[in-house]
Sequence to fold (212 residues):
Amino acid sequence: MRGAAVLMVAAAIAMAGCGAGTDTPGTVVDLSQVEGAAGVRGITLATPMPKPTTALTDTAGKPFDLRAATAGKLTLVFFGFTNCPDICPTTMADLAAARSLLGAADQAQLRVVFVATDPARDTPAAVRRWLGQFDSSFIGVTGTWDDVAHLADQLGVPVQAPRQGSDGSWTVTHGSQVTAFSPDGVARVAYQAGTSVEDYAHDIPLLLRGEV
Fold:
């Protein structure tokens, strides 16, 4: 994976190891103190990334190609799973709250894509029900583990295949960052776990206007 080289931060990329009842975040970065974050409160990517194509499935059971389905939109991509007890629901709730602070025109130009890292348990229907708790506009996608892991690798997001312990509990480890693809289809900024609603709401209009 190339994740360690993607973010211009001294700290290691945050990982979330999520079990049956725990969610252990990695380093939470104070974004206001990150070198290279001038103008926006996110973290500047060392190398801008073009939005990749995908072979995933949306919550309606239809093929989902990230590049085509979100063309011309500001697209925030997060990897997680519906049984996650902490980081995943917190991130979705924060993004939903930030979206609610935007005007209608900006809301219409924003897409939030949740990629399920526990595809064996997170069916499209399960993902749709879970996302509905936060914002009905959020897009949920799943697929084979290989397809999910391939997309994560392209975005520099570290993930590990879900594993079940001898006691029946599951551990699903995934990077906790949100990758922001501007309307031109290029990601230049990412957000670590712990980003505030206010920081997202501050940056989204800048990203929409191409000021990053």
Summary: The chain has seven helices and twelve strands. Residues 100 and 107 are 8 Å apart (CA to CA). Confidence is low (pLDDT under 50) at residues 1-14, 19-38.
